[in-house]
Hints:
Helices cover 3% and strands 50% of the residues. By secondary structure, it is mainly β. The protein folds into two domains: 7-84 and 183-262, Pnp Oxidase, Chain A, CATH 2.30.110; 92-173, no CATH class. Strands 1, 2, 3, 4, 5, 16, 17, 18 and 19 form a nine-stranded antiparallel β-sheet that branches. A hairpin with a 5-residue loop joins β16 and β17 (208-220). The longest helix is centred in the first third of the chain and has 8 residues, at 75-82. It is elongated and about 90 Å long.
Amino acid sequence: MTTPNVWAVREVALATFYDLETNKARIQLANLKTSGLENTAETTYSLGGRGNAKIVGFSGNRGGRVTLQDAVFTNEVIAMMTGNDIKSGAKSIYQKEILKVEGYKASLKFTPEHVEKGLISVYTLNPDGTHNTEIEYAAVLSANKYTLTGKELKFNQGDLDDGAEVAAYYQIITDTTAKTITVSSDKFAGTYKVVLDCLVRNVVDEKDYAAQIVINKAKMEDKWTITMAATGEPSVFDIPMEILKPVNGTELYTMTVYDESLIA
C-alpha cells in the first residue's frame, strides 16, 4: 500500500528541539499530553459599491502557533523558556518547624545556616497554632531569650513548660545535587527548530504511517504558568510557541507522511 492521501490523526506527537546555531538536538519530549499546530493569516478586503460589499481580498500576515502540553516538568525545557541555565549546587532554602520543648530545650531537624546569628524567628504558639510571643536570640541566656548550639535551642528556665510548642523559622543548606531554576528580568525564552513526529492512520486499510512536521523556526513564548492545586489531575506544563519565517526561504514548516517499512 502506498503512502495514504486520506488519513486521520489522533496520537500525540513526539517533540524534538534543535539548536538553531549548532543544529544539535537540545531535548526530546516523550511525555506530551497534547500537541497542537495552528495556522494563522489575515485577509483584508476592498469594499465598495452599493451596500459597501467585499470586492476582492488580499491575504497576508501568514504565521502559525505551536502549543505543546507536557504531562511532566523538565528542567531543560524550563531553562529554555526562562533563558537561564539550571544551576546545580548547594543552595540556601527556608525552613519552618514546630518544636516541642522538653527540659527547656528543643532540637531542630536540620543544622541551621549561620548558627552564630541565631534563627530567623522563634515564636511561642497559641492553641490554634498562630504566633504568640517572639523569643529572640541571645549569645547569653536570659529571660525571654534562647541560645543556639548546633541544632539545639535552649530556653531560660521558667519561660516555657515541658510540652510547650514553638515555631522556628530558619535557613538550611541543601546538598550539592540541588537544582535551581531562575527567572530574571533580563533573560527571555529562546528560538529553536522543532520536529514533531506522530502517527497517521490510512482510512482505506487503517494502517498506521509515520508523519513528521519540521518547524524551521519557533519562538518560545515568555508567558507560561505552573499551576498548583490540592485537587484534580496533576499539573501540566504548557509550552506555547510562535512560528517565525526562517532567514533563508519562505517555508514556515513542512509535513511529510511516509511508510517506515519501505525505508532501507
